[in-house]
Amino acid sequence: MNVKMPYTKPLNQDNSKLQSEVISLFKSGDLKWNTGQNVQEKKEGLNYIIQGLRKMELWIEREYDEKKKQLQLQYYSRREEASKRLDTLEKYEKGEVVQDSNGNAGNHQQQQKKQGDKDQKSEFSNALSEAIVKDKPNVKWTDIAGLEGAKSALQEAVLLPIKFPDFFEGARTPWKGILMYGPPGTGKTFLAKACATEAEGTFFSVSSADLISKYVGESEKLIKTLFSMAREQKPSIIFIDEIDSMCGARGEGQNDSSRRVITEFLVQMQGVGHDDKGVLVLGATNLPWALDTAIRRRFEKRIYIPLPDVKAREFMIQNSLKKNKTTLTQEQFEDLAIKTEEYSGSDISVFVRDAVYEPVRKLQSAKKFKQISVDGQLKWTPVADNEEGTPKSFMELNQGDIAIPDVCYNDFLLALKKSKKSVSKDQLGEFERWTKEFGQEG
């Protein structure tokens, strides 16, 4: 600090008020500096002292003779001390080990940084705690049609190491990464739900939205915190849906933040100094060819989840109608399974839902109703215009008075005319080519 001493002709004035202000400012500044727990508080203390020095300059201007000389000595001493404290503050901000004006050695800034990192980790942990699946989805392996290869691989990676850990020694180590890929709606997320239901460990379900932040460096810290939480709560499974949106191939046009995210993910999945035993990363994607090559290598098992075959489609249609009354025969179920060739699991779900709406549509369009006995109670059911019945609108009836017609084969034929498959043959060709080169059949 280089404060120039002004010189003016001494005046004979009452300086008691100035004296009181200077003493008060110095006292407040020393207290704030000595008790400050962070850089900001110490900076506030130094500001009080600097204000005191400026007031003291004015006080010195108004004194003379011996009094003025004494004040000048005190002023220079205070100014030198303030200059040292300013240097100390700069070192605090740089994180260097310093010794403050009271002779106390310490590294306050580094302590503050550690505390800040701890608080930030706690904040990230709280944000990611919502990703932990606490309530089991209640999806069992038997609820999944077909996909025997995928189910076997997942049971091998998820259930066996938890139930029989002694089996996995030496070269027989559990899989650390499994990638499920295939067309949309084939059951990848459904398989993950089955893992969450059957596994006894902690299940994290995250997407790129949970891990990507607009703030620089925060995405990497979220990924680091996620894996740290998984290691603390192992055995654990980290399921990342649509992983291609976060770990796409690195290229010249890619920004630095995306590169850092991929790098951090690579380090956490299989980096030096990390104990990954008991942690499985489960990824799902519709675009496996879009993944970075290093990310692809981290997934040791890459399982193709194809469109359901005819037996799987038949099971899906029957399973979807468990809670609906239907008149379909076994032959009709088999026929519908054949007619839905190249439909995904999601397409079949939409198709069945559309078919079971047909009885409701009959209620809406019916102009005649007749009474039938249902469990010993008379109820109204719709009839065709050319059949005998009582002219009515279903809006005139109460819910308890209506007998909704059973779902029949004809309802499915009507729904089949309106439903369309969502996966093209060209897309299937791309998946088959990628499977031959990098994957395995599920």
TrEMBL record:
Q: Give the subcellular location.
A: Endosome membrane
Which GO molecular function terms does the record list? ATP binding; ATP hydrolysis activity
InterPro entries, per the entry: AAA+_ATPase, AAA_lid_3, ATPase_AAA_core, ATPase_AAA_CS, MT-severing_AAA_ATPase, Spast_Vps4_C
- What is the protein's membrane topology class? Peripheral membrane protein
Q: What are its GO cellular component terms?
A: endosome membrane
- Main localization is membrane
Q: Has UniProt tagged this entry with the keyword Aminoacyl-tRNA synthetase?
A: no
From which domain of life does this come?
Eukaryota
Any idea where the AAA+ ATPase domain is?
A: 174-309
Question: Which SMART domains does UniProt cross-reference here?
Answer: AAA (SM00382)
Task: Output the GO biological process annotations, alphabetical, semicolon-separated.
Answer: endosomal transport; vacuole organization
Keywords (alphabetical) are: ATP-binding, Endosome, Membrane, Nucleotide-binding
Say if the entry is tagged with keyword ATP-binding.
yes
Q: Which residue intervals make up region (Disordered)?
A: 96-121
Extent of Polar residues compositional bias: 99-108
Describe the family membership recorded for this protein in Swiss-Prot or TrEMBL. Answer: Belongs to the AAA ATPase family.
User: Know the name of this protein?
Assistant: AAA+ ATPase domain-containing protein
Q: What is the lineage of its organism?
A: Eukaryota, Sar, Alveolata, Ciliophora, Intramacronucleata
